[in-house]
Amino acid sequence: MKVIIGKDYAEISKLAAEKMIGEWDSYNILGFATGSTPEGLYQELIQANKDGKISFKDKTTVNLDEYIGLPENHKESYRFFMNTKLFDHVDVDKKNTNVPHAKDEFDVAACKNYDELVNKLGGADIQILGIGENGHIAFNEPNEELSANTNIVKLTDSTIKANSRFFNNEDEVPRYAITMGMGTILKAKEIILLASGVKKADAIKKLVEDDKVTTKNPSTFLKLHPNVTIYITQDIADAINL
Ligand code: F6R
């Protein structure tokens, strides 16, 4: 696992974007994440698209996860996030953008269909990830067991609390989500994980300090992948003596 330290959020966003832009032609399937962390990277990609350096015309995208129970045009749905933060501003064909969607928490068919889609595409050529303070990846929360494949999860209290900053109050945060499993994510040929701010230090420590894998920190499953680069800010590096 390669670790790249940038002085701040702007710098890690830029460094990750430069890497992607440099290898753009080798990516057909782009794996995206939502959350606040990748926004800076998306802005860099939008600018590069406007400058004519990269095109999304022939690209297909797959996203990691989506809340259950929010309509696609809800301002907190991950489909809405991707449209407004990236897809609406680049030359991607929306037909080729995929965000999982389950109609309710019992919709196992939606999980199966999404895995089939990812498999048919051969997995993402590059998958962008953020990380939760508790080490969650996508909506794979720390637990006794994790599902390998796309699955429906009940959000933990800590994630509901963390995500309530985007809603009027905690009650409005959906209780369930559909998410790629760690196995689905590990099908990506290359993975970039971004983490900014000292709140992520504990989670990153578990990811880089040894070779142990634990469902108590789903990000540690990334140790099983041969091509992962993590971009972290200097304050995280300082906090864990990197
Ligand atoms: C989003 C996702 C989440 C976030 C994580 C960090 O698609 O899968 O796992 O990456 O919650 O969120 P931020 O970036 O807002 O700190």
What does this molecule look like?
It is a single chain. With 242 residues, the chain is α/β, with parallel strands linked by helices. It has 8 helices and 10 strands. A 7-stranded parallel beta sheet has the order 1-10-9-6-2-3-5. Helix 1 (9-22) crosses helix 2.
Outline the secondary-structure elements:
Layout: E1 2-6, H1 9-22, E2 29-32, H2 39-50, E3 60-63, E4 65-67, H3 78-85, E5 97-98, H4 108-121, E6 126-129, E7 151-154, H5 157-163, E8 176-179, H6 182-185, E9 191-195, H7 201-208, E10 228-233, H8 234-239
Parallel strand pairs: 1-10, 2-3, 2-6, 3-5, 6-9, 9-10
Antiparallel strand pairs: 4-8, 7-8
Task: Spell out the key features of this protein.
242 residues, 7-stranded parallel sheet, 3-stranded antiparallel sheet, 8 helices, globular, binds fructose -6-phosphate
